[in-house]
Amino acid sequence: MDYKLIEFKVHGDENGKLIAVEGGIDSPFEIKRVYWIYDTLPEIERGKHSHKNLEQIIVAVSGSCEFVLDDGKTKETVILDRPNLGLYIGKNIWRVMKNFSGECKLVVFASDYYDEKEYIRNYDKFLEGVK
Ligand code: T46
User: Fold this and answer.
1) I want to staple 47 with a disulfide (CB 3.0 to 4.6 A). Which of 10, 95, 110, 115 is the partner?
2) How far apart (Å, rounded) are the C-alpha atoms in residues 75 and 78?
3) Which letter, b or e, does each residue of 85-116 get, where b requires 16 or more Cβ atoms within 10 Å of its Cβ?
4) Which residue's alpha carbon is nearest to atom 12 within ligand 1?
5) pLDDT tens-digit map of 68-113
6) pLDDT at 103
7) How far apart are alpha carbons 3 and 53 in whole angstroms?
8) Closest ligand 1 atom to 113 CA
């Protein structure tokens, strides 16, 4: 399945910590867009879509949540629970985000600008596409 976990280098001491992500260096793609997700409730689910071409890296900079990843053949669950861990997701992976902890804050680095036409939001259509 086209995903991987990336350990980011932490710069820090007793004064605090800092992590930098440079496009094409710490991420496998040039970064064109950054967005963040917050104020999520524990019982909700987000995602439920795949992307035709977009690549992304997701970091839980605070709190935690689960990603259920699905390539149409198998499903794997990844837990994001520390700010130095990035989840890279390639194209054609169905993702469901769930079990958000309190104060979960996700920062997402994306390989391209937002384009709703690039999303597949129907699961049957997703399965058709990856067959
Ligand atoms: C993903 C997961 C991790 C925009 O206007 N611009 C944007 O850049 C994005 C990402 C979204 N939106 C709008 C589209 C919807 O009206 O914000 C609304 C919520 O988006 P969505 O329902 O797609 O949010 P999530 O949390 O289900 O998914 C998002 C990303 O869309 C997706 O690519 O992998 O976060």
Assistant:
1) 95
2) 10
3) bbbbbbebbbbbbbbbeeebbbbbbbbbeeee
4) 114
5) 999 999 999 999 999 999 999 999 999 999 999 999 999 999 999 9
6) 94
7) 14
8) 8
Of 46, 49, 91, 105, which is the active-site residue? 49
pTM exceeding the 0.70 threshold for the entire prediction: yes
Burial (CB count within 10 angstroms: exposed 0-12, middle 13-18, buried 19+), residue 57: buried
Instruction: Measure the CA–CA gap between 70 and 51, rounded to whole angstroms.
Output: 12
Other C-beta atoms lying within 10 Å of the C-beta of residue 4: 13
Is 49 catalytic? The answer is yes
Cα–Cα dist 20/113, whole Å: 21
How many angstroms is it from 61 CA to the middle of ligand 1? Answer: 18
Ligand 1 neighbours, Cβ below 6 Å, are 33, 35, 37, 46-47, 56, 58, 95, 108, 114
Beta carbons of 6 and 90 less than 8 angstroms apart: no
CA–CA distance, 86 with 127 (Å, rounded to integer): 26
Domains in the chain and their CATH numbers? 3-130 (2.60.120.10)
